[in-house]
Amino acid sequence: MWNxxxxxxxxxxxxxxxxxxxxxxxxxxxxxxxxxxxxxxRYPENFESLGVDMAMKAEAIACSTRNIVASFPVNxxxxxxxxxxxAQGIEISEITNGYEIIIPCLLPKRxxxxxxxxxxxxxxxxLENFAKSNNIERIENALICYIYEYExxxxxxxxxxxxxLETKEILDILNTYFLIDDSGLFCELHYSTKIGNRTCTRxxxxxxxxxxxxx
Length: 215
Description:
Elements: H1 4-37, H2 44-71, H3 77-88, E1 91-95, E2 98-103, H4 113-133, E3 142-151, H5 168-177, E4 187-196, E5 200-207
Parallel strand pairs: 3-4
Antiparallel strand pairs: 1-2, 2-5, 3-5
Helix pairs in contact: 1-2, 2-3, 2-4, 3-4, 4-5
């Protein structure tokens, strides 16, 4: 049974966090309304900017909600992260010469810590569970390819620059499970863009055999 003092302290903290979350939700609703009434044909740049702002607010709300629910002592954070991993649809599989991770979205921009956490926490959890269920062979000389796949009807101007996407923290997580070391001596990075049937990020972690054609 909980200590009454501890429970009261938790309840006060919880109410404060919920109030902040409600404020964030109000701002998110305002962003949705602004996005809805903006003419995408006449003001494409504003429409795009509002869309990005709306997505960032939604991801921040998801992270805050996840943290609030996981803070309740009866809840298990791993349970919450498992649900988040399943909801995001992260896939991990073994392929020829290595492993492939499929994230059903583009990597977040290097803008906001919460937006990175939205993806990184479930990704780390998924990789940890994959490592527990499989005999992982750590790769000494690794070739890592980030493949950004866009749906075939996307306007070309929507294709992002590689340097605007968050890859460093992804590499840190990959190093924990698949690599001997993520320094330049042991790890070579490649970036690629392709047009396909879905928008996603494919990350292939393979043995560096001197060519990337097999990726």
